[in-house]
UniProtKB/TrEMBL annotation, chain A:
UniProt cross-references to InterPro entries, sorted A to Z: C-type_cytochrome_biogenesis, CcmH/CycL/Ccl2/NrfF_N, CcmH/CycL/NrfF/Ccl2_sf
GO cellular component terms given for this protein: plasma membrane
Membrane-spanning parts: 118-137
UniProt keyword Transmembrane present: yes
Molecular function as annotated in GO: metal ion binding
Source superkingdom: Bacteria
Descriptive protein name: Cytochrome c-type biogenesis protein
TrEMBL record, chain B:
Family assignment from sequence similarity: Belongs to the thioredoxin family. DsbE subfamily.
A single GO cellular-component term on record: outer membrane-bounded periplasmic space
Record-level Gene Ontology MF annotations: disulfide oxidoreductase activity
Family matches, as CDD domains: TlpA_like_DsbE
Gene Ontology BP terms: cytochrome complex assembly
Subcellular compartments: Cell envelope
Chief location of this protein within or outside the cell: other
Domain called Thioredoxin: residue spans: 33-191
Record keywords: Cytochrome c-type biogenesis, Disulfide bond, Redox-active center
Domain of life: Bacteria
InterPro entries: Periplasmic_diS_OxRdtase_DsbE, Redoxin, Thioredoxin-like_sf, Thioredoxin_CS, Thioredoxin_domain, Thioredoxin_ResA/DsbE_sf
Annotated protein name in UniProt: DsbE family thiol:disulfide interchange protein
């Protein structure tokens, strides 16, 4: 897949062509092609570092894939850059800085904490604190309502006693009307 | 609290507002961190004379466009007539950055190809394409492996960079240039830089 931007009509056409060509392409891939073997660093430790870092970097072409997962040509290029730079002794932070300088924070799956991302990182905390505050307010209000309801007047107490003793109807009728 | 029933409605309107705004954004257009920064320097072989390297400094003192293109790029064909027209009107010098001419083409398996052979093929293909479609560039350079493209943060073709007299990137256009984007964004920006400089 070449990295390019198709106009809409062409994109639809390309999709149709891709769908049509998929079985063919797969058939071609299954024929062992030494040219298609992925580049791998000889040192396994280095390769695992490359993959670890690649999983944290977003592919700009297939935006929901990391450059470790994507096979877009740009992802392959960037993976090679990561490998090359780590092999030459640069630290992981150096490599990340190199890519951020060119593609921006967008390449990072984990956005950095700074002024523009304050709401992003602080949002959940804000929601938690807000929710907890609201809950505390509601609970306190309910408690005071219950407490307020707990104070009965002498007449109410008297009536409650009568009700509990079964001496009165739960209405305004007088006890004598009971037959 | 008589209007309590309005709370879900207000929350919904707020959420819908956010989502509606989100729909107007294009996630494919990743803002470049290179804007207002010095353009990364490079020295690449010229397409017209591959023995001669072209360096970015040679354009110092001019306001110019760096247009990333390739013969395999379909969207480049869409913007190309506009570039040719701009060249004819001598609006602004445009340098072409021919990006991964051979290995970028999905139809060619360039792995294992020797660099000399790949370069020769790239030159042949790029020249033929410019003969067929017109050459709007003051010159084109060959970025065979896409390394300079990475330095410029290129993630697709075409892309166009507006570079000022001091060699700073002032604007990046992602995707094909349209007559509207040229008139509404690029030309005013060129004017602005020329007035200020």
């Amino acid at each position: 897949m070449p990295v390019e931007r198709f106009p809409k009509a062409l994109r639809a056409l390309a999709l149709a062509a891709l769908l049509g060509a998929t079985p063919l392409a797969m058939a071609q891939q299954s024929v062992a092609d030494p040219g298609l073997a992925p580049t791998v660093a000889p040192d396994p430790q280095l390769e695992s570092d490359v993959m670890e870092l690649s999983h944290k970097l977003r592919c700009l072409v297939c935006q929901n894939q990391s450059i470790a997962e994507s096979n877009a040509p740009l992802a392959v290029d960037l993976r090679n850059q990561v490998r090359e730079q780590l092999a030459s002794g640069r630290s992981k932070d150096d490599v990340v800085d190199y890519l951020v300088a060119r593609y921006g924070d967008f390449v990072l799956y984990e956005p950095p904490f700074k002024a523009t991302t304050l709401l992003l990182w602080g949002g959940p905390v804000l929601l938690l604190v807000g929710g907890a505050g609201w809950l505390a307010y509601r609970l306190r209000r309910r408690a005071s309502e219950v407490a307020a309801a707990g104070h009965l007047s002498e007449a109410e107490r008297q009536r409650a006693r009568e009700l509990l003793a079964g001496a009165a109807q739960p209405s305004s009728e007088s006890p004598e009307s009971r037959s | 609290m008589k209007a309590k029933f309005l709370v879900p409605l207000i929350l919904f309107i707020g959420l819908a507002g956010f989502l509606a705004f989100g729909l107007t954004l294009n996630p494919r257009e990743v803002p470049s961190p290179l804007i207002d920064k010095p353009a990364p320097n490079f020295s690449l072989a010229r397409l017209d004379d591959p023995a001669r390297p072209f360096a970015l400094e040679e354009m110092k003192g001019q306001v110019w466009l760096l247009n990333v293109w390739a013969s395999w790029c379909v969207a480049c064909r869409q913007e190309h007539p506009l570039l040719v027209q701009m060249a004819r009107q001598k609006i602004v010098p445009v340098v072409g950055l021919n990006y991964k001419e051979v290995r970028g083409d999905g139809a060619i398996n360039a792995r294992g190809m020797a660099l000399e052979a790949e370069t020769a093929m790239a030159i042949e293909r790029a020249r033929r394409w410019l003969t067929d479609h017109g050459d709007p560039y003051v010159l084109s350079v060959l970025d065979i492996d896409g390394r300079v493209g990475i330095d410029f943060g290129v993630y697709g073709v075409p892309e166009t960079f507006l570079i000022d007299t001091e060699g700073r990137i002032r604007y990046k256009h992602i995707g094909p240039i349209t007559p509207e984007s040229l008139k509404q964004v690029i030309l005013p920006k060129i004017e602005e830089i020329r007035r200020a400089g």
